[in-house]
């Protein structure tokens, strides 16, 4: 699995895996759910059940890396976010007012602070009173954080 992930990612996966799978194996749906969601994945219950059944109800770290690879290829967060924007774009213009975007980011789901939104807007070159092309915004917001290690 080393060919699919950076060494730093594998270290993070290992640390999280052994934090929640104290016996050295994942043996329950709850453990798998917590580990994958802690690592930023959003698998459905059906996907999680399938992964665990596919490994005979027990999952070693090597099995977990394989599951992470499979799931990371299936989960396409930027595409899902763009589709969510499109669903709310009644005029099909591909834009959203920055004030509305700020409101969404601060008040929906795990709301961001005003400072966090300011940082994202600065990174994405978004003015506070402008119009945002949401596909471009999503590309910037979902881009991997540069690795400066």
UniProtKB/TrEMBL annotation:
Taxonomy, superkingdom = Eukaryota
Task: Offer an example of a GO molecular function term for this protein.
Answer: calcium ion binding
Q: Does the keyword Methyltransferase apply?
A: no
Q: Which residues form the EF-hand domain?
A: 83-141
GO CC terms of this entry: myosin II complex
Matching Gene3D superfamilies, A to Z? EF-hand
Specify whether Ion transport is a keyword of the entry.
Answer: no
Q: Which InterPro entries match?
A: CALM/Myosin/TropC-like, EF-hand-dom_pair, EF_hand_dom
Q: Quote the SUPFAM superfamilies the UniProt record gives.
A: EF-hand
- Record-linked Pfam families: EF-hand_7
Keywords of this entry: Repeat
What is the name attached to this protein's record? EF-hand domain-containing protein
């Amino acid at each position: 699995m080393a060919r699919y992930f950076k060494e730093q990612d594998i270290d993070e996966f290992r640390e999280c895996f052994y934090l929640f799978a104290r016996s050295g194996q994942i043996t329950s749906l709850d453990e798998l759910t917590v580990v994958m969601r802690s690592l930023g994945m959003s698998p459905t219950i059906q996907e999680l059940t399938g992964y665990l059944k596919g490994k005979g109800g027990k999952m070693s770290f090597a099995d977990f890396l394989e599951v992470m690879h499979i799931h990371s290829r299936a989960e396409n967060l930027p595409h899902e976010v763009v589709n969510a924007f499109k669903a709310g774009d009644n005029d099909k213009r591909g834009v959203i007012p920055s004030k509305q975007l700020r409101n969404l980011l601060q008040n929906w789901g795990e709301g961001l602070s005003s400072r966090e939104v300011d940082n994202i807007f600065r990174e994405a070159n978004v003015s506070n009173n402008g119009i945002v092309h949401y596909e471009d915004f999503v590309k910037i917001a979902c881009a991997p954080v540069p690795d400066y290690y």
